[in-house]
Amino acid sequence: MALSTYRIGMIGAGGIAESRHLPNLRQIPGVELVAVANRSQESGERAAAKYGFAKVYAHWLQVVDDPDVDIVFIGTPPYMHREIACYALEKDKHVFCQARMAANLQDAIAMLDADRASEKTTMLCPAPHYFPVQPFVLDFIDSGKLGDVRHVVLQHAGGNLVDPERPLHWRQRGDIQGINLLDVGIMGEILGGWFGPVRQLSAVGRTWVDSRPPDRDGKTAVDLPDAVSVTGQFLNGPTLSALFSGAVTGGGNSVTIYGSDATLQCFAYKSQVRISDADGERVVDVPEELQGRWTVEQDFLQAVTEGRKGSPSFAAGVQYMAFTQAVYDSLRQDMKPVELYEE
User: Fold this and answer.
1) Structural domain that includes position 282
2) 176 and 94 share a domain?
3) Position 326 in a domain
4) How far apart are the first and last CA of the chain?
5) Are residues 174 and 208 in the same domain?
6) C-alpha to C-alpha distance for 160 and 2, rounded to whole angstroms
7) Which whole-number Å values give the CA distances from 127 to 124, 190, 269, in the listed order?
8) What is the pTM of this model?
9) E strand or H helix at 176, and its extent?
10) Are 327 and 200 in contact (CB under 8 A)?
């Protein structure tokens, strides 16, 4: 049954939920913020007071089981996504899930299986990094102006992990993040949407600080690497070279697409692209009317109203989780030593 009133229960109301989802949801007619469960009762009470949730629960199960909740927003870290999403679908609730989709590929596949067994609307939160230029880039690729797309070079490098005295972040913990290292999954989603699946890849990683000052749980061990380099090839032909790093000063975030007739470079959160072709090099400002925009909450609720699955779908999530899993698995494969002989 299509909904005109959206009775929402939120599990995990921090981070992006506070910066985007909740402010935007409150602007949409028909939205009712019914219930919330957060990391602690206290933080749940704060979220309720700030955003107007009618009920605060101590555990996420209570949110899903509440008969007044029709839609479950999952804003927890990845290790909880499978259990919550599968249970919510079993309880006949619509599900919006924060990215990354799951702790690992196996959990993502379980979520997709649950999704396919349900007629309820599901959707994953999309990666916003290249929203401003994405329509322009896709049109440029489809127009053939690049010629044959031959190489894709990605750099997502910054300095948030340079300081060894920075306390352990939860995104560095395998028990919370699973295999979701750095921006690998985020860019796996974007690259998959632009160029299709990656056919093969190889990855190497490095951690410069193995132990950090404790986080709020008292954990100090760094489980996920500070930097990863990936080389590979897309199923439809182009090669991929990618650097993901949190351990450099300077850096920057960009995607460069090299074609036989032109090269196009775009930058995260910028509405400009750099184009090089037979006419020279130039910077192009993407017209405002052609820029992609964040309409995530509206898109999901529109899908609920129309009784269909949202986009990015759980199937798309499995694809980027397969990319992330392949990177993670490649990092764990050590080259066998070769015995050297003197001539």
Assistant:
1) 134-290
2) no
3) no
4) 78
5) yes
6) 44
7) 9, 7, 11
8) 0.95
9) helix 174-177
10) no
